[in-house]
Write a structure and sequence with these properties.
This protein is mostly helical and 101 residues long. The chain has a domain of 48 residues. It is 56% helix and 0% strand. 0% of the residues are buried.
Length: 101
Amino acid sequence: MLAACAQNPAGPGGPDYAAHHPPGAVADRMAMMDAQMSKMREMHEKMARAGTPQERQALMAEHMKLMQEGMAMMGGMGPGAMGGMGGMGGMGGMGPPAARP
């Protein structure tokens, strides 16, 4: 049993490394994240330019869709993508700590 624990995991260049880390995967993820951040920045600017609460409310559906896309992308990154928080539900809601049960 100790012999199994003493084995080194596959590192870069190892036989199993390429199977789990295809070339370009990190670059693809970074490009997707950059695109998502650009969309969110544009949405923030649209909401800031909205002159009335009604205009901002009209943008909320698009804003929620972008947020859900971003969370789905984060969820697809595997464990640890959200720092072990499990998404918004893992934070116990958005209220102050005293308001949480």
